[in-house]
Amino acid sequence: MSLEKLINNCKQGNRRAQEELYRKYSGVLFGMCLKYSRNKTEAEDSLHDSFMTIFDKIDQFTNKGSFEGWMKRITVNTVLQKYRKEQHLNVVSENMGDEEVSIESEHVDNINLSTLLNHIQELPNKYRLTFNLYVLDGYSHKEISELLGTSTGTSKSNLARAKMILKEKIEKENISIA
After folding, report:
1. What pLDDT is stored for residue 92 in this prediction?
2. Residue-wise pLDDT tens digits, 28-48
3. Would you indicate the residue range of the signal peptide (predicted)?
4. Which residue of 14, 15, 80, 127 is surrounded by the most CB atoms within 10 Å?
5. Could you tell me the pLDDT band of residue 86, with boundaries at 50, 70 and 90?
6. Are 94 and 161 spatial neighbours (Cβ–Cβ below 8 Å)?
7. Same CATH fold, 105-177 and 3-85?
8. pTM of the predicted model as reported, rounded to 2 decimal places
9. Interatomic CA distance for residues 133 and 141, integer angstroms
10. Which DSSP string do the residues of 99-158 spell out, in sequence order?
11. Is 3-85 assigned to CATH 1.10.1740.10?
12. Top-level CATH class of 105-177?
């Protein structure tokens, strides 16, 4: 079944089409949820909530642009909305300025992907969300500040802190490996 037909069937509330759409895209969207979540259970909850929103708003998709991109945007917004509701995002009052923290590639090369993902998931919420939005998904600080309801300075500060924490964890990991 073509994607367009699948979408149209979902718009009509066809449960089999919804199940097929879920099977087709749940892996990609779960990966996104996992990036933004503290653990697998939280990511599963976010995936469920995302698909509920996707099926609820599928009539709003006008076949212009990427359907997968549209679903990814809903997924990111669903995860961020959950954090805003839980009031986990507190404004950082300290400002680290525009200081750039870099993680040496030799350290990253020596760490496996699942360990790196675990380190990212262990970041405090505001740092993890900012890091993922900026580094992994390419959002600008202005866009992040709008999504998270903070200032661009806070976004920059949160990113710098996230990088600093990750750098420390990765360097510690490399010392343990050596």
Report:
1. 38
2. 999 999 888 888 998 999 999
3. none
4. 127
5. low
6. no
7. no
8. 0.66
9. 9
10. ------HHHHHTS-HHHHHHHHHHS-HHHHHHHIIIIIT---HHHHHHHHTS-HHHHHHH
11. yes
12. mainly alpha
Q: Where are the domains of the chain?
A: 3-85, 105-177
Structure tokens at 91: 């404004």
pLDDT in tens, 127-149: 999 999 998 888 999 999 988 88
Q: Is the pLDDT of residue 98 over 70?
A: no
The tokens for 176 are 């343990």
CA 161 to chain centre: 17
Length of the chain: 178
Distance of CA 44 to the CA centre of its chain: 13
